[in-house]
Specification:
Length: 270
Amino acid sequence: MPQLPAPQYPAEVRARLETDAKDIIARYPGARSALLPLLHLVQSEEGHVSRTGMAFCAEQLDLTTAEVTAVATFYTMYRRKPGGDYQVGVCTNTLCAVMGGDAIFDELKEHLGVGNDETTEDGKVTLEHIECNAACDFAPVVMVNWEFFDNQTPESAIRLVDDLREGRTVEPTRGAPLCTYKETARILAGFPDERPGAVAASGGAGHASLIGLRLARGETPQRVVRPRDGASGPAAPQPGSEHLSSHDAPQETSASDPSHPAAPTAEEGE
């Protein structure tokens, strides 16, 4: 059978993408190392990595389409089909699940009328369950276009997706201001976020994420419990507290498991 020609972008789109691709490729000593950001670039154009996008990447990097496809299908941050402006991911890994992530995911499926990896009819929200995103100290966590929304409940998650669909301003718990999926893809391709104040508003890990470091230094983290009543807004901290978390700061082993005390045994002390 004759080989079908590779799909092409319109001339003006291709010219713009080629300029951006040259910028990306120039960052690397070997051109093929630019494949990951180049896939984000084409995703920023269409909202997903299409056959046209993969063919473009292959041409720019002198790779086969099979090599590009192997990478695009391996990483979950590359969509293979059109999706919504906001990708809402609910962590259903172990800790988030037991803290309420499964309940949040089930409530959102019913509220939005979609299943996993499906998009609402208005094209605003794509819902998916995601694996651990290293924010267990703020479980359960919901991510929108890879920005964190910590300590969620079914009620707060429903308000979140309703605000997204209505175009109301939504602010992540920490990190950069929220933008659309296409805009996020361009930033992940390595281009600066040029929105006013976006860089200044970015933030790192919260106080609860630093508990391990403080323990290693011999410091004692303060104990904080966040209520699970679905109330919006931050919980009132206990006296002397310095961080908010969805569950207690680490305790001495003996405090939770008397059969395995943390202190040395009598034999060890002799």
